[in-house]
Amino acid sequence: MTFSTSIKTICLLVCCLVCTAGTRASDFETIYQRMYEKYLSKNPSKDTVEGLLKLMSPEGSFVTLNYRATDGSPRKHVQNLITLACAYQHPQNAYYHKSEVKEAYLKALNFWVDTNHQAKNWWYRFIPYPKELSASVILMSKEIRQDKTLFDKTIKYLRWSYENANPSHMTGANGADIIMGSLAASVLTENDAQMKDFQAKMNQLLTIQPVEGIQPDYLFAQHCGNGRQLYFTSYGKEFVNSMLSYLEFCKDTQYQSTGVELLQRLFCDGVQWVFFSKQHDPNNAGRFISSNQYAGAVKDLAERVYKLSSPETKEASKVALQHIAGDNSLEGNRMFWRFDYMINRRKHYMASSRMTSTRTVGNEAGNGDGNFNYYASNGVNYLFVTGREYDRDFFKRFNNRQYPGITAEQGNKPLPIPEWGEEGGNGNNFAGGVSDSIYGACGMMLDRHGLKANKAWFYFDNEYVCLGSGINNPDGKDEVLTTVNQCNADGKVSYAQNGKISTLKGTQQLNGLEWALHGQVGYFNLDPQAACRLSDEKGLFSLTIDHGTRPQAGNYAYLVYPGMKKAADAKQYAQDIPVQILANTEKVQAVRHKTLGITEVIFYQPGELKLENGDVIRTDQPCALLWNEGTQKVSVANPRCESVNPETIRISLTRGGKTTDLPFAMPQQEMSGRSVTQSADL
Which terminus of the chain has a lower count of CB atoms within 10 Å, N or C? Predict the structure, then answer.
C-alpha cells in the first residue's frame, strides 16, 4: 500500500467515524427534543407554583409529605418536581425562567436522589419514581448539568431500577415501564450501548409472549404466577403507553424499535372487541374491576397507534379506534383461547363468557385491591346493551357472590382472597370454546370451593342460551345460586308467571317464571322446574336460580335476548322460541337454532349426539363443535388447550344414512385451543 493510499484510507475512516458520531449526536438530540416537547405538556397556575414554593423546607422536602411513610405516598414529591419544571420552562408561565423556581427545583431534586425513598411495595422505586422523575429531569437537564455532582447522582438514580431489576420484573408492562424510567439517563449521557440494549429489549417485548405480554390470540396477560390472567385495561394499558412513548421518541433513529404492527394487531384483533358504548368488559381489568375506569386512556392510546400505523394498516387501526370510542358497529364472535374467554357482538349488544381452568385465573387481588374478586373465576357472563349496566359505583355495591352468570354457594363466611391470583383459577382443565368468527359456543367444568358444575354458553345473532348441568355441592352449608344477571337497575321490571304478566316490586320468589324483562333485555326461563328469585332493590337488578343447599345433579337452562324493549314482544317470542335444547347432561350440552340451522355442542367426553331429525354427531375426543348447515362447515376446538392436546380430533356426521368422517388437525403448543374449520358436504 502506498503512502498516498494509506492517507486516503485513514481519511475515509475518520470521515466515517465523524459521520457516525454526528448521526448518533443527531439521533440523541432528536430523541431529547421529542421527550422535551412531550413532557412540557402542562402550564401550572401561578397559585399552584406559589403553593409548592411555600411548602418547601430549607433542605428541599415538602412539609406536607411524610417521607418516613412506606406506602408510596412520597411519590407526590416527584410529581411536584414536574410541576416546578413545567413552570420554569413554559414560556407562558408566570414563573418562566424565574430563579426562585430553578433553585427550588434543584434543591428538591437533590433531596430526592439523596434520600432515595424506598416504599414497601417494590414497584414504586422501580417504576413510578424514576419514570416520573425522568420528565422533570429532561426539562431541567441544562440547569442540572451546571452541578456535575447532582447530574451524576441523578443519572445514577434513574439507571438504578433497570440495572437492579429481577428478570421477573422485566416482563410485560413492568419491563416496558422500567426501560422508560431509565431512558432519559441514557439519552442525556448519549450512551450508545445502553440505548442499543433498550432497543433489543423493546424489540423482544414487542413480540408474542409465552407468559406475560401480548398473547397469540392478541389480548394481554400480566401477573401470571398462578395462571394466565387477562389484564389489558390497567397493565396492558401501561405497557402500550410505554411502548408507544419509546416508538414515538425513537422513530426514524438508529434506536427505533420494531413492533408497531403488533400493537396494531393487539388493538384490531383484541382490544376493540372488549369495548361497547365506551365501556369495557370488566374481565379485562384485573384487580381494578370496573367497566369504564380507563376507557378514555385506552381511546387515547388507540389514537396514537393509528398515527403510527403504516399505510397498509391505517384503515384497520382507524376502525378499531372508532369502535373503542363508542361506535358499536363491530359484529362477530371471538374465542380468546389463551384466556378461556369468549366475546359475542352484534350492533345492539356485547356479551362475554369468562371461564377459568388449571391454566388461567380470574380477576386477582393485591395491595388491598380486589379482595372480593374470588367468584370472578366461576364463569362470569357480562352483558352490555345500554352501556349503563355496570358503570358508576356498581362494583362497590353489588353482591360479590352473584357475579353475572356464575354458579356459586352463598352465605356470609369470608371468601378466600385471590392474592396475585392464588386460588383464583379452577380445579379442572376443561374450559374453552369454538368460534367460526360469526357464531360460537364455550363451556367449562367448574370445580371450585367444593362446588362442581358444567356450564356452557351458546351464542347466535339475537339471542344466546346458557346451560348448566351436574351441579353438585355435597359438603355445602348454604344455598347454591346461578346468577342470570346482576346489574344496575334501569327502569321497571316486567315478568310473566303462569301466563300472567306483572310488574316487579321489591323481591319475588317465583316458581314457574316464564320470562323477565329489564334494561332492554329479555330473560327466558327454559326449565319449568326452576326456582327463580327476581329483585330490583337498592338500585340493583338481579335474577337468580336457586339450586338449594347441597344440590346433587342440579341444572339450569335459560335464554337471553338483548335489545328487547316491550313486554308484548317478550310474550310473543316466548310462544315460539327458535332455539331447541338437544342435551344438557354431564356428558354433553348442545343447542340447535332452528331458524339459522346451526348446531352448537360442548362434548365433555367422547361420544355422540342424536338430533331429533335423526342426524348424529360423533367425536373421539372431548371438544367444542359448531355445525352450520347453511354453509356446510364444521368448526372444532379443544377446550383443554395445551393441558391435554391431541394432534387430531375425529368428527363424524350422519344424515339420511350417509356418514361423513372429518379428521381435524388440531393446533399445537401456544395455539392449542384455537378453532379449526372445514367443509362438510352432506
Answer: N
DSSP-derived 3-state class of residue 474: coil
What CA–CA distance (Å, rounded) separates 298 from 563?
A: 27
Q: How do strand 228-229 and strand 360-361 relate by DSSP bridges? A: parallel
Q: Are 476 and 401 in contact (CB under 8 A)?
A: no
The pLDDT of residue 9 is 45
CB burial readout 386-414, b (16+ within 10 A) else e? bbbbbbeebbeebbbbbbbbbbbbbeeee
Contact assessment for residue 457 and residue 484, using Cβ atoms and an 8 Å cutoff: no
**How many angstroms separate the Cα of 255 from the Cα of each of 105, 171, 469?**
31, 20, 56
Centre a 10 Å sphere on the Cβ of residue 209 and count the other Cβ atoms it contains: 18
Tell me the H-state helices in 40-147.
Answer: 46-55, 76-89, 99-115, 122-126, 128-139, 141-145
Strands 521-525 and 513-518, by their bridges, are antiparallel
Nearest-angstrom CA–CA distance, 627 and 634: 5
Distance CA 621, CA 608 (A): 10
State the helix-helix crossing angle for 295-308 and 237-250, rounded to 10 degrees: 30
Instruction: Output the nine-digit C-alpha cell for 354.
Output: 369468562
The model's pTM:
0.93
Asked whether 378 and 400 are in contact (CB, 8 A), the reply is: no
Degrees, nearest 5: CA angle 88-89-95: 35
> Backbone phi, then psi, for 262, in 5-degree steps?
-70, -40
* CA–CA gap between residue 564 and residue 609 (Å, rounded): 32
* Residue-wise pLDDT tens digits, 223-248: 999 999 999 999 999 999 999 999 99
Give the SS3 label for residue 153.
helix
DSSP category for residue 267: I
User: How far is Cα 482 from Cα 631, in angstroms, rounded to an integer?
Assistant: 35
Contacts of 62 (CB under 8 A, 6+ apart): 52, 55, 56, 76, 77, 80, 108
Residues 6+ apart with CB under 8 A from 619: 603, 606, 607, 608, 625, 649, 650, 651
Partnered with residue 635 across adjacent β-strands are: 626, 677
